[in-house]
Design brief:
Elements lengths: L5 H9 L53 E4 L5 E7 L6 E5 L10 H9 L3 E5 L16 H15 L4 E6 L1 H14 L5 E7 L18 H24 L14 H13 L2 H13 L3 H6 L4 E6 L11 H7 L3 E6 L6 H4 L1 H13 L1
Parallel strand pairs: 3-4, 3-5, 5-6, 6-7, 7-8
Antiparallel strand pairs: 1-2, 2-4
Helix pairs in contact: 1-5, 3-4, 5-6, 5-7
Length: 344
Amino acid sequence: MFHPSRRDVLMGLGAVAAGAAIGKQVPFLHGMKAPTTSQPRTTQPRITQPRITQPSTTQPSTEGNVMATILTKDGTEIFYKDWGPKDAQPIMFHHGWPLSSDDWDTQMLFFLANGYRVVAHDRRGHGRSSQIDTGHDIDHYASDASGVVEHLDLKNAIHIGHSTGGGEVARYVAKYGQPQRRVAKAVLIAAIPPLMLKTEKNPEGTPMEVFDGFRKALAANRAQFFLDVPSGPFYGFNRPGAKASEGIIRNWWRQGMMGSALAHYEGIKAFSETDQTDDLKAITVPTLVMQGDDDQVVPSKDASVLQAKLLQRGTLKIYPGFSHGMMTTNADVINADILAFIRS
């Protein structure tokens, strides 16, 4: 199997074509037909159809009790979801760029049905949170997440982050979760740490001109750029023989276009230039590191492999043939492995 370098795949991402071939969505709820695929699979634990209750009346919300939100110290309104029994062990999900908490729908339904309290929030400038013009950096991302955790008083929590959300988890756990004794375990899925950008200390990283290309494409035609990414490398839909899932592509586009162009533009600097080596070294809780070896966005050898070496209690799982968006396209496998890790 071809294992692309960070430079190769991100150069490809910057030049994705709208006509690329795309692949199939996998089911995630019990009773749905399993996918036909040549990729490795594990048996999904039996789950029941979830019954979602209304949020507690003690949660703050916007007028009409439509959305639950918190207000940060700098006046940013952060939207969040909080489903399930409030005395159950909480799992908090942290989404990737440029998406929203909706990207975790598959996992939230699965873990809710398995008896957990599930929480997810929209990062500042993303989804339904405020389109503020400041604070689009890893420090603010982690601080905002901590604000949700403290408001809901989540304890003994598992924090799961994908891509940029993995960087958010690493900073949150190291700076807030562990010192406050609120976190039990962490899961990093195709996460950005320790550092994406090529520097003197990180010679195998991605050159700045690649990220400049992202910014140029976003500024010129964000709507088209946000079609090209999920249609091509994000889910591996550009691979030979892959078939389209129009729903996955449209859902990615929908989430991206809900957010602020400015937050997305400045977020590129956050996910590409933030060195999180010290965050990883500081994490002492058990941490599951998961990534596909055909990730064309954040190649595993420069991300998950290094994460596992820096973490004090890291467990590395590499999935042959899986893409950057494997939690969507291979949800049955990923959910089962996360559940096993949590229960271990």
